[in-house]
Design a protein that fits this description.
Layout: H1 22-30, E1 37-40, H2 49-59, H3 64-69, H4 72-90, H5 92-98, H6 104-121, E2 127-130, H7 136-184
Antiparallel strand pairs: 1-2
Helix pairs in contact: 2-6, 4-6
């Protein structure tokens, strides 16, 4: 929902996406660290749509678009499919004669390339981005702020109770003074 400011499932604050980076996400994915990496259709500032589209159209059969955004597993799969295509082309006579079923994966690679072109062109291609990872210092400062907020709310509640008590005491004193004045008259 557009009125929401955070994701109900993962508690992600949507305003943080403006500062997210694909470059940092690629570093984390190379280290096999998928914590704080989110996939989004909105391209971050460090990914060019034109460059992504051109890579997909002209080098998509190799998987260049996947390497560009950091989806390395899919990129390797597309590269292996392309190498397989080249090998099938070189050994075409042997494959046609004995093993025609080996052409099937070539068709899948071509279909995957065409689907990538459609996804990038329609801006549905998901790109990994890295959300700010909390450091120990930021976690400590947040917990200190929470403790301070709790203390201030507790102090304010105590102050309110004190004020209420003093008001009641003042009312009682006023009643006593009025009663003494009546007795004096």
């Amino acid at each position: 929902m557009q009125s929401q400011t955070r994701c109900p499932e993962c508690d992600l604050i949507f305003s943080r996406l403006e500062f997210a980076s694909n470059k940092a996400a690629k570093k984390q994915l190379r280290k096999f660290n998928r914590d704080y990496v989110v996939y989004t259709k909105d391209l971050p500032k460090d990914v060019s749509f034109i460059k992504l589209l051109l890579l997909t159209i002209f080098c998509g059969l190799f998987g260049a678009q996947y390497y560009y955004v950091g989806k390395y597993e899919k990129g390797i799969l597309m590269t292996v499919s392309f190498v397989y295509l080249v090998l099938c082309t070189i050994f075409n006579a042997y494959i046609v004669e004995y093993m025609q079923f080996l052409y099937f994966p070539i068709g899948l690679a071509g279909i995957a390339w065409m689907v990538s072109i459609v996804y990038v062109g329609s801006r549905k291609f998901k790109v990994p981005i890295l959300i700010d990872m909390p450091t120990a210092e930021s976690v400590e400062s947040e917990t200190k702020k929470e403790k301070n907020n709790k203390k201030t709310t507790q102090n304010s509640e105590k102050n309110v109770k004190k004020v209420e008590k003093t008001e009641k005491v003042e009312e009682i004193i006023e009643k006593i003074e009025k009663a003494q004045q009546k007795e004096d008259k």
